[in-house]
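Worked example 3 (structure in, sequence out).
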């Protein structure tokens, strides 16, 4: 048998073997995708279990780590408990506040988890921008327009917006199933701009705005034991299709469930500005408003394929796993050639 025929036979056997294997794995992948779809449906039906199954995966670098500039505007108030002014820009660094104190109606020495109707409000938790003021912070890495970011949201800004509590009710740090909310929100919107180098800025001129929907929440509510349970994820955005009015008549617990494991905050999509990444965020007073915006934190959204979770070698489906689905893609295209083919 000459060399040319031997190579043809080798190619035939190789293509046949991997073709059959590819067909098998392709059918297997169909079954696997069906399994995944069923799993998604189950998680949609059981949102509490879905959120509880995820544990937050973040570190200090997921949040702004440096204050580049803070220009305190006018109208910056003081903490009515301590008397301290809200002018410490370092309060905008790190993760959003998990627990605050009582406000006097709730004992001041009591730890109170942040919920949509009871936001952070202390001077050691927030910084106020003030009228004509602005705040610029920086990340340690590029905040990317990652294709796997949930809802396409790349950046989250946390303020102290507050969902209106139901008429005649007050928050007592009790059972979140016993308190309902109205469809309004107390907010103090500010304009957000982003930059790659700190010099050239791109503005979200038509919104979204900082210190707006969605109000921050810290923990999932355990409906079985009537206690606060898993910590919510400050690097996961709320579905941007939601607005404050969608929750009118709902309980605080239902509102948190709808966050689907997120801590809330206002989400921003870099795609709207045509940017692949940024490192700087500037929050400035809205000149058309007398509101004095408060900022708690600025977060990078986490996802498969981001700076902490790169796609592993061999991950052809880009789901951060190397498994039979990737092998099915490889076998389906085995021996495909597009240049200098024998």
């Amino acid at each position: 048998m000459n060399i040319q025929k031997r190579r043809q036979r080798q190619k035939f056997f190789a293509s046949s073997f991997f073709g059959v294997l590819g067909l098998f794995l392709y059918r297997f992948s169909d079954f696997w995708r069906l399994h995944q779809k069923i799993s998604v449906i189950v998680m949609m039906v059981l949102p509490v279990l879905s959120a509880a199954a995820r544990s937050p995966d973040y570190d200090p670098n997921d949040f702004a780590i440096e204050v580049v500039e803070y220009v305190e505007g006018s109208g910056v108030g003081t903490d009515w408990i301590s008397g301290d002014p809200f002018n410490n820009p370092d309060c905008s660094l790190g993760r959003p506040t998990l627990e605050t104190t009582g406000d006097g109606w709730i004992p001041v020495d009591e730890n109170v988890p942040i919920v949509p109707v009871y936001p952070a409000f202390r001077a050691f938790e927030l910084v106020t921008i003030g009228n004509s003021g602005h705040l610029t912070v920086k990340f340690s890495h590029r905040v990317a327009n990652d294709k796997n970011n949930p809802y396409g949201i790349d950046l989250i800004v946390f303020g102290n917006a507050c969902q209106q509590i139901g008429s005649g009710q007050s928050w007592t740090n009790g059972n979140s199933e016993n308190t309902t909310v109205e469809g309004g929100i107390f907010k103090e919107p500010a304009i957000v701009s982003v930059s790659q180098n700190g010099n050239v800025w791109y503005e979200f001129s038509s919104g979204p705005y900082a210190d707006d929907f969605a109000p921050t929440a810290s923990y999932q509510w355990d409906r079985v034991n009537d206690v606060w349970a898993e910590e919510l994820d400050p690097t996961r955005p709320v579905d941007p299709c939601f607005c404050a009015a969608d929750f009118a008549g709902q309980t605080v617990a239902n509102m948190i469930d709808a966050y689907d494991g997120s801590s809330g905050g206002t989400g921003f999509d870099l795609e709207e500005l045509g940017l692949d990444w940024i490192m700087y965020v500037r929050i400035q007073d809205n000149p058309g408003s007398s509101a004095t915006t408060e900022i708690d934190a600025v977060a990078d959204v986490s996802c498969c394929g981001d700076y902490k979770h790169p796609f592993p070698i061999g991950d052809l489906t880009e789901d951060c796993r190397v498994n039979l689905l990737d092998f099915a893609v490889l076998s389906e295209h085995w021996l495909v050639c597009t240049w200098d083919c024998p």
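Notes: The two ends are 19 Å apart (CA to CA). DSSP finds four helices and 16 strands in the chain.
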